[in-house]
Amino acid sequence: MASLKFSFFPFLLVHAIFFLSRPALCDDEDNLLQGINSYRTSLSLPVLTKNKNADCAAGELADDLEDQSCDAAAIPSPNTLSTLANYPKVASKCKIDVNTTTDGVIMPVCVRKLVPTLVLTNYTRTHYAKYLNESKYTGIGVGSEDDWTVVVLTTNTLAGSFASGAWRMSEKIGGLGIGMVFGWFFWVR
């Protein structure tokens, strides 16, 4: 019976360690999102939700910036996606309809070794804060690579949703279908 208790104790100990401990390596992008949402909550603004297409765009843009040094890169103000040189490639790869990005904003920052508190401060204590302080932004995408982090903010309007072209086409076809049904109904009468 003593051997049964002895073999059960290590089993229980190992499981307790795995279930009660938090992982040592956290996802920096999720931590940044959580920090930004805490910042917005402190201002009585709604939290930002992850937008899949904006997330893709942020990741692609961070990948493009990874070879630039922090010293050489001076990006003084946020950009709209359409003003960037690689916009067509990013929009195509992320399946984003270009008409759904005009109200969004892209905010790249460069912080050596991506120190989490400094990255968050670069968004909440700089000229980028005015965008985080606006309630019109409802969605977010975050991407990081090497020393670069890119945040893309989206709206819930058609011009800022970062929706895919397929969704926009189905919306147009759906509206056409409803119009045809109503047209047929009134024509038959």
UniProtKB/TrEMBL annotation:
Pfam (any one): At5g19230
Signal peptide extent: 1-26
Limits of the Uncharacterized GPI-anchored protein At5g19230-like domain: 29-153
UniProt keywords, alphabetically: Signal
Protein name: Uncharacterized GPI-anchored protein At5g19230-like domain-containing protein
